[in-house]
């Protein structure tokens, strides 16, 4: 069905690979992940090769994205958090380029797959936990014990804090996945209306203008959401990293 | 901005530099102060711009809604998941699920309140800031 709004998220195997009973096939999702990394790397490499003192348009775009992420990280995690800059910048560029590539017609949106966003979120939380224990030892667990809580309530509060902490990767990944999925489905549904209305004769074609306008507006909105979600992902990463750097609650 | 300022200022400063180093220092200081003032003004303007656009945008409201709902749902889902796991391992069905679903609900509310900035992260304001500086 050409009009099936879910069809665009279908994963197809391009090169079937199986190692020890585990399916490691190179799928269209893998292809677009490679494309995302390649385009992000190419963008940053080619815009910064000339390295002129007065940046041209392309170079200033690369510098702007650098400064954007650097300021975000410095504001939320302090200068001590700057050691995580490579991680945050890579995540931001990956999510941004994956979202933007997904806006091309017939392209696959990597970030609309929850397993992709969940893996990204696990990388973030894994870094927070590992670095927290490495840097602060058992004191890192103090993150779960707010000070000034009466003794009897501590177990309850700790349980709630632990659940709240564990829910972070879930909310981080669900947010990105849900907004990309919902946006692309909405876009496809409205675009489908144009085709089905257009098949109804002259009156249908006249009314098809309405969903067409809607689709144009939604496309703009989707570009905005693509950027906002990449930004939200990066800023939440910064805030969680702040917990690993300063767990002194 | 500094790049634009320098050439014309240099032109002005050059005649002075030959005979009078004191004037040059003063000039340099003045330029530094001017630049600082200009930067401060620009920064304030930028901040004001951000505030206005943030207030007028519907998109921010949409983003906020997505954020708060996902925070709450994640809390409940993770709580229920932990309870279910405990039941599976310890065989205490359905008590683990019941207790941890309720705790998850609390955690979800806590997440939402934190995300909305209604309650501060405990003690962050006192200790966390100090270490930052």
TrEMBL record, chain A:
CDD domains: ATP-synt_Fo_a_6
Top-level taxon of the source organism: Bacteria
Lipid bilayer topology: Multi-pass membrane protein
Free-text function comment from the UniProt entry: Key component of the proton channel; it plays a direct role in the translocation of protons across the membrane.
Protein name: ATP synthase subunit a
Sequence similarity: Belongs to the ATPase A chain family.
Keywords: ATP synthesis, Cell membrane, CF(0), Hydrogen ion transport, Ion transport, Membrane, Transmembrane, Transmembrane helix, Transport
Transmembrane feature ranges: 30-47, 84-108, 114-134, 141-167, 187-214, 221-242
InterPro entries assigned to the protein according to its UniProt record, in alphabetical order: ATP_synth_F0_asu, ATP_synth_F0_asu_bact/mt, F0_ATP_A_sf
First-listed, main subcellular location of the protein, grouped into a coarse class: membrane
Pfam families (UniProt xref): ATP-synt_A
Subcellular location: Cell membrane; Membrane
Keyword Cell membrane: yes
Automatic annotation (TrEMBL), chain B:
Alphabetical UniProt keywords: Membrane, Transmembrane, Transmembrane helix
Transmembrane segments: 68-86, 92-113
Lineage top rank: taxon: Bacteria
The keyword Disulfide bond appears for this protein: no
Positions with biased composition (Basic and acidic residues): 1-15
InterPro entries named in the record: ATPase_put
Annotated spans, Disordered: 1-30
Protein name (database record): AtpZ/AtpI family protein
Protein species of origin: Aquamicrobium zhengzhouense
